[in-house]
Specification:
This protein has about 425 residues and is of the alpha/beta class. Helices cover about 50% and strands about 10% of the residues. It has 2 domains: about 350 residues, TIM Barrel (Alpha-Beta Barrel); about 60 residues, no CATH class. Strand 4, helix 5 and strand 5 form a beta-alpha-beta unit. The N and C termini lie far apart (about 65 Å). It binds iron/sulfur cluster (SF4). The site of iron/sulfur cluster has 7 residues, from helix 19.
């Protein structure tokens, strides 16, 4: 039934090149990396039809950052989307998702796929565009679009297989203030309600896996029932979907298809750890891909900061892959500067997660080096070590070139304690 000798199966027999390459980049023993891939705890999304810089996502790996770009029906400027994609990569993004819904979708995707990075898409968006409305999307069209994305070279697909009739019943039985905020989730709800049929991605899941397997494409099991506000975080639909995703994740692994799980949406900060751990347990520790979490709903314009707080806590408890949230989240399609700002703060959240997940080795070493450079008031070294050194330099230099900085000026504590101890031959 499955044509490709999948990465999972090759890892079960030894250490294929892909596993060796990412193991080196992550500082992980290659055999251990191969075992993690076999167990479905690490994924390397990589379509067999396209070569690009590989990126490992999951247990033991550095937290990765995805950036969403793409046109909409309201604003469609493909050249600008490519510019945003490049800006994201230049600022440290590990992957891109093309979520375009306006213009020539195939041509836009082709441009994004020409970049040297992991690329994901959400095929149901295109299916709805082609059909004209969600209710007019049938199984044939949806599977056709999925196959086309695979054939074009997309590495991972977000597929909302867990938005099934059971999740819909849970949504109705325990209504939410915001209903459903996932675009893919809403499309599948509309298809089920108006066509009176089960979600084909759920009812024909084996066929779906067969298509993905043929191209070595990773399934990212979408969180179509993620809560859209803090108030909805404890409602039932989300948990019903989690349980379904757990079963589907297991079936993907058995079929040799790499899997990731998406979650968990808007929720209070004190629920993040519990949700991350629950998803990890239910899905047998599949790589966890998060948008947010958004931990307050009242800071539009600063949702990138909000999700950085949620994201850092989520990474600390096991999230592996963060989706960038930009300052324009909930407000507008992002501009290039929104993408830059969003990517940078999400990278910071990922790094904070790494300092807890992988305190050993070079990640912690850089923290120590920075502290030492600060102690020595070595500004050049501080800018070299900083995640975004040019930005830091610009701020420092606005008051001129000085030994300390203008924050405390001649009352610089760092300088005084150094002189106090080192002047006496002591070490502080
Ligand atoms: S002046 Fe103040 S803020 Fe600046 S380096 Fe010295 S102690 Fe730190």
């Amino acid at each position: 039934m499955f044509l490709m000798d999948s990465l999972i199966r090759r890892c079960a027999r030894g250490v294929p090149d892909e596993a060796a390459v990412v193991a080196r980049a992550e500082g992980i023993d290659p055999a251990q990396m191969a075992r993690a891939i076999t167990a479905g705890r690490v994924a390397i999304p990589a379509n067999s039809k396209r070569q690009h810089r590989l990126c490992a996502i999951g247990e033991g790996c550095r937290v990765k950052v995805n950036v969403n770009i793409g046109t909409s029906g309201t604003r469609c400027d493909p050249a600008l989307e490519v510019k945003k994609a490049k800006a994201a990569l230049n600022n440290g993004a590990d992957s891109l998702m093309d979520l375009s819904t306006g213009g020539n979708l195939v041509a836009i995707r082709k441009k994004i796929l020409s970049l040297d990075t992991t690329v994901g898409t959400v095929p149901v968006y295109e299916a709805v565009r082609r059909a004209g409305s969600a209710a007019d999307v049938d199984a044939d069209l949806l599977f056709k679009v999925i196959r086309e994305h695979c054939r074009q070279g997309v590495d991972f697909l977000t597929l909302h297989c867990g938005v099934n009739r059971e999740a819909l019943a849970a949504l109705r039985a325990d209504p939410r203030l915001m209903g459903v905020v996932s675009r893919g989730g809403v499309f599948h709800c509309a298809m089920m309600v108006q066509r009176g049929e089960e979600n084909p991605l759920f009812s024909e899941y084996d066929y779906l896996l067969e298509i993905l397997s043929e191209y070595g494409v990773t399934i990212s099991l979408g969180d179509g029932m993620r809560p859209g506000c803090l108030q909805d975080a404890e409602k039932r639909a989300k948990s019903v979907e989690y349980v379904t995703l757990g079963g589907l994740a297991k079936r993907a692994l058995v079929a040799g298809v790499q899997r990731m799980i998406e979650g968990p949406g808007h929720m209070p900060l004190d629920q993040v750890a519990y949700n991350v751990r629950m998803i990890k347990e239910i899905t047998d520790h599949a790589p966890l891909y998060l948008l947010g979490p958004i931990v307050t709903d009242i800071a539009p314009g600063y949702d990138h900061v909000v999700s950085t707080i949620g994201g850092a806590v989520a990474c600390m408890h096991g999230a592996d892959f963060l989706c960038m949230v930009s300052p324009s989240e909930h407000l507008a399609l992002p501009l290039v500067e929104d993408i830059v700002e969003g990517t940078r703060v999400t990278k910071i959240a990922a790094h904070i997660g790494d300092t807890v997940r992988r305190p050993e080795g070079y990640r912690m070493e850089r923290e120590v080096q920075m502290a030492d450079a600060r102690r020595r008031l070595d500004w050049a070294e501080q800018f070299r070590l900083a995640l975004y050194g040019e930005h830091a330099k610009k701020i420092h230099c606005r008051d001129g070139d000085m030994e300390t900085c203008s924050m405390c000026g001649d009352l610089c504590a760092v300088k005084m304690i150094r002189e106090l101890f080192e002047g006496n031959g002591e070490k502080n």
